[in-house]
Amino acid sequence: MPRASKEQNRIDEQNVMKLLLRNPTADVIAIAEECNLSTQQVYKILRELDDKKATTGNYLFVDPEAVGMKRYIIFAKRSGMIYNERSLTCALYEKEMIDDLEKEGIRVIPEDDYTCSGEFDMVTVFFAESSIQANKYADYLRRVSEGNFSKLSVMEVMFTTKKNTKPVSSDIEGFIDFVRR
User: Fold this and answer.
1) Are residues 103 and 152 in the same domain?
2) What would the pLDDT profile of 9-66 be if each residue is shown by its tens digit?
3) In this structure, is residue 78 part of a structural domain?
C-alpha cells in the first residue's frame, strides 16, 4: 500500500480535528468511520495532535487554531414572531441545516448554543475559518429565520483565557497587550 503524502496527512489531521470540534466525545472507531481512516491512522493522528498540543489530555479541549479556525459568537434578539419550521431546524442543528451550509459553501462548526434571558435571547458559539465565513453564517441565519430576529451581532473571540476552568491561552503577552489597548 502506498504511503500517504504529507498533504494527505495534513488533510486527514484537519478532518479529525474538525470532527473533534463538532463531537469532542467521539471514540476512535467513530472518528475512523466518519473520516474514512483506519483506527491505526486515527490513533497516530491523535498522538501527533497531543504532541503538538493541538489537543489537551482528553479530546474535549481542542485548539481550533490547529485547524485554521477561529471562535465566533452570535448574539441574537428575537423579534417576537413565532418560529417557522426552518428556523427550528436551524436551532436544533438538524442534518438538513448542516447540508444546506455545506451546499452554500459556509464552513462553520457549531460549538455551543444558549437560550437566554436579558438583552439577547440566543447566543451561538461556533468555529469558522474567517470573519467572511462567520458573516455568511449570520446571513444564512437571518435568511432562514425569516424575521425571527430583530438583531443579530457577530463577534470574533480574540482570546480564550479559560475553558471549563482550565487555562487555555498560550499567548499571555498577546492577551495582556489586547486588554491594555
Assistant:
1) yes
2) 888 888 888 788 777 778 899 999 989 999 999 999 988 888 877 776 655 566 777 7
3) yes
